[in-house]
Write a structure and sequence with these properties.
Chain lengths: 201, 126
């Protein structure tokens, strides 16, 4: 079993960790499981998915209220992000955001300009954007491409925007690869004005 | 030498470049700048004026986070990756990102890198 992701406490004044959602995402042969961290660091199974065609899974705290304090932190949400290949009626990449607090979920089926069998790795990150009242993010997919008879790995980047009011996705599929690489990890970061930055390795 | 103005750095040349196994890159920039390139079908390279791009180490399975050092005020990137044995590193990788301490670290061990990175405010002037 390996640790895929864990929630890192967001910025904000606090003295009692119970105000914060604490989750750990683990992966084993049965798939991904989200555990909530309870009293005395006990783990409680919260949400699990089968490994079938899942490319990547992650959890993210989305603080809808920017003025985090001990009393209103509960207005932040925790999302489980999942990307699958050609699942059910979706003949593309299926991006699913599940709000862990109430198990509600939304999905988008996204076309892609490469063969599914050529996918090497993927990662997705989202954050709350106050200006657009949406969850904005980016997904990198590493793909083996052939150029002049030679295979090389390349990174495709997808832009993701999920409007919280209309519950509609707007995903932009790239026209070409943006960089090289056979593995990818993407993380979003915010400046003091809430502007989103991407750190991708 | 300022290489980004040379004709060889145009897209036609770049398309012939190869990814080097176990050489790890980073990209650091505003989400809106990434989105603009996705819309336009453009590359991100070391010649990009808005997105910081470079090679920093060899290894695999990179994970990272950005945080501010509360003492110095510096913006930092903490990057964790798995090591790759010296014998598995291609010559080109050793050439560009080094392997000055061959197998000094145990196989399957992890390496932690800490960088000071370009602060948010600077991007407004790029």
């Amino acid at each position: 079993m390996s640790v895929i992701s864990s929630i890192i406490l967001p910025d904000g004044p606090y003295t009692d960790l119970s105000y914060h959602a604490s989750y750990i995402l683990l992966q084993d042969k049965n798939g991904y499981t989200v555990y909530s961290v309870g009293e005395n660091l006990s783990l409680q199974k919260y949400y699990s998915i089968q490994p079938a065609a899942t490319l990547t899974a992650d959890i993210a705290v989305v603080n809808v209220n920017r003025n985090i304090s001990e009393n209103n932190y509960s207005q932040g949400y925790t999302y489980f992000e999942e990307v699958s290949i050609s699942s059910g009626t979706c003949q593309g990449l299926l991006i699913t955001l599940t709000k862990i607090e109430d198990s509600s979920s939304s999905s988008a089926c996204v076309s892609y300009p490469f063969e599914a069998s050529s996918i090497l790795d993927a990662d997705l990150a989202i954050e709350y954007d106050q200006n657009s009242n949406s969850l904005r993010g980016i997904m990198f997919v590493s793909v083996s491409i052939t150029y002049l008879g030679q295979k090389k790995p390349a990174l495709y980047a997808f832009s993701i925007d999920y409007n919280l009011a209309s519950q509609q996705f707007n995903v932009v599929t790239p026209k070409s690869y943006i960089d090289f690489g056979d593995q990818t990890f993407v993380k979003l970061s915010k400046d003091s004005n809430g502007k989103l930055f991407v750190f991708e390795v | 030498m300022y290489k980004c103005g040379l004709s060889g750095t145009k897209n036609s040349h770049r398309a012939r470049l190869q990814s080097v196994k176990h050489m790890m890159n980073y990209n650091w920039g505003r989400l809106d700048d990434f989105v603009e390139r996705i819309w336009g079908g453009n590359y991100v390279s070391a010649c990009d004026h808005q997105i910081m791009h470079g090679k920093y180490s060899n290894g695999e399975n990179p994970h990272a986070l950005v945080f501010r050092n509360s003492t110095t005020g510096d913006l930092k990137a903490l990057i964790i990756n798995q090591n790759v044995p010296y014998k598995d590193l291609p010559v080109v990788t050793k050439l560009f990102v080094g392997a000055t301490n061959p197998d000094g670290e145990k196989f399957n061990s992890v390496r932690v890198n800490l960088f000071t990175i370009v602060d948010y405010d600077v991007f407004a002037y790029l």
